[in-house]
Design goal:
Layout (H helix, E strand, L loop, with lengths): L1 H21 L3 H18 L9 E6 L3 H20 L5 E6 L7 H13 L8 E7 L2 E4 L12 H13 L4 H4 L3 H15 L6 E4 L3 H17 L12 H16 L19 E4 L5 H5 L2 H6 L20 H12 L36 H9 L3 H4 L2 H8 L7 H8 L6 H11 L3 H9 L4 H10 L25
Parallel strand pairs: 1-2, 1-5, 2-3, 5-6
Antiparallel strand pairs: 3-4
Helix pairs in contact: 1-3, 2-3, 5-9, 7-9
Amino acid sequence: MGAIHDQAMHYIYQQVLERLLSHMSQAQRASLQLLIQRLLVAAGGPEYIGTFRLLVLQGADRRSAHLLATLRAAQLSIALRAPVTFQLRVLVVNLPAAGSTVLENHERSFNALFMQDDPRVQLQMTEGCEVVPFSRRQSAAPERWALARNAMLMFGHGVDARPEALLGSRLHLELAGAVGVALQAQPRADVLITAVPARQRRRYLAWARRSLRLAGERGPHVVHQCLSALANGLGRLHGVAGSPLERADASSSMATEEAPLRVIAIDDLLPHLLEDEQFDHMLGCCFDAAQDAWPLAAFVDSRAVAQLHDLRARSLEPLVHRPALRLASPSSDGGPREPTSAHLGKPYGISQTQLVCLLFSPFARQGKGLERFLRCRHPDMLVALPYLHRALQGKPCPEAVKDWLVNTSGLALVPLRAIYEGGLQPSSRRLMANLARRDVHLKWLPRPPAAGRPAFEGLP
């Protein structure tokens, strides 16, 4: 029975390969052969290809989908000529969180490539700072998102709440943390394979090194040799951003005792594949052509920034129906009606009310924006404004006022008071100010207007 099953699977894999090759031009097939040769050399020869393990980060863009299809063709081509082929680990990433539409597109691609039941393929996805088996449905496990939740709230309230900054270079730290977890899994991957252009890779490395220096990271400068060391270092910075009141462990080292994790770049083999839409039809996916120009943003939801802008603009509109004064949870039934834009904070456990509060960042700079926030969103709380300041200053005040602050912001009183007073660890302040300078493409962001300048702006 086992032999019959193996023969049937071999026939199915051969059909998948033939289908892939039928969508390739002669030039594309030549590129595929060059890729196979690179992989065989990187493995140390054909005799070692069976234990060679590749990791690929799967974004929601055309570049990622075509890279995966090409790798699958290489994997199946080697399997037809040799008794074994390389192992492939696919890590699906879409920040802040993958929506159902994105996950369904990935599932269609995996099914078209017949990867779900292939023991040589491991399909995974990120949920917060954890790596879990791929599924089209996200699990309800809020503890997985705790660090990412705190990092987003602390950054928005204390540093910069503009959508471009909130969902900017900061998300690369969250991605690095998840990649670091994936790299620790056994058996270890031998290489990460990417199609990100060389210029973008250099920009990313320069940004990463600067971020590590600003946070006071010390240790051997091996980030250009080992991706695992770089991911671990940036993952620690994500922990610093999520807990900026705690002193970072300065003794942490970026050194690794194991063999360095190499990177194989094949961006020179993919340009003509990106121009061909036949793969799109075969994989059953549709892609935004404009997103292909920004490879560093391939792992970020392209609609998230626009949705946050829409939420912010609609939040500035006056509320027509004013609710009665409520010092309990503002998200309970009977509260003010919230904007109907997509609830980006749901996976993190951030309510719509807390997300709107985050976009106003009313507690920074001794609460200078607090009165404006109340007038726009919670006018019936204006009578409690003096008590809100007392609570943020650590002075005695009614417990209901404290509860309102916690429920509305999503943060406990201790970090809220630190934001109010501008008290962060120096290394955290430098790091977070640097993150606010660049968007998700690692391009410079203009400074916010003086009236809305954040509490921890500027580098020493």
